[in-house]
Structures are given as structure tokens and as C-alpha cells.
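#lab-general

N.A. 3:47 PM
ok so I finally got the sequence cleaned up, no stray characters, all 65 residues accounted for. can someone with queue access submit it? mine expired

B.Y. 3:52 PM
send it over

N.A. 3:53 PM
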Amino acid sequence: MTTRTVPPEQDPLDPMPQPPEAPDINDCCGNGCDPCIFDRHDMAMDEYRQALRAWRARHPEADQP
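B.Y. 4:20 PM
back already:
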């Protein structure tokens, strides 16, 4: 019997976080919204980076070449 090992980034129970999609330059209305769509993306990127750090701590083998 063979056991198939799933790469950690493909684990359906704990998938690797994916970065948020960047807004298009034309998505900004130019009205000085607070927060602007770009500010919201920056905040989402911060959350993504934190989630990725936590995921990598749970899956140290994912950093192996």
C-alpha cells in the first residue's frame, strides 16, 4: 500500500493563504474616500502576510526546496 503525500500548500484542510487581488487603477473614484480602495487593499495585504506567516509556522516543511 502506498501513501500519497499532499504538498502542504494543497492541503484542503489548511490551504496556503492567497494574496488579495489588487484593484485596478481605474477602480478608484478619485473622491478621496477614507479608506480608499487602495488603502483597503493595503490592509488586506497586511492580513494576508500575517496569515501566511502563521501558515508557514504550521507548515515549516513548505519552505523546503
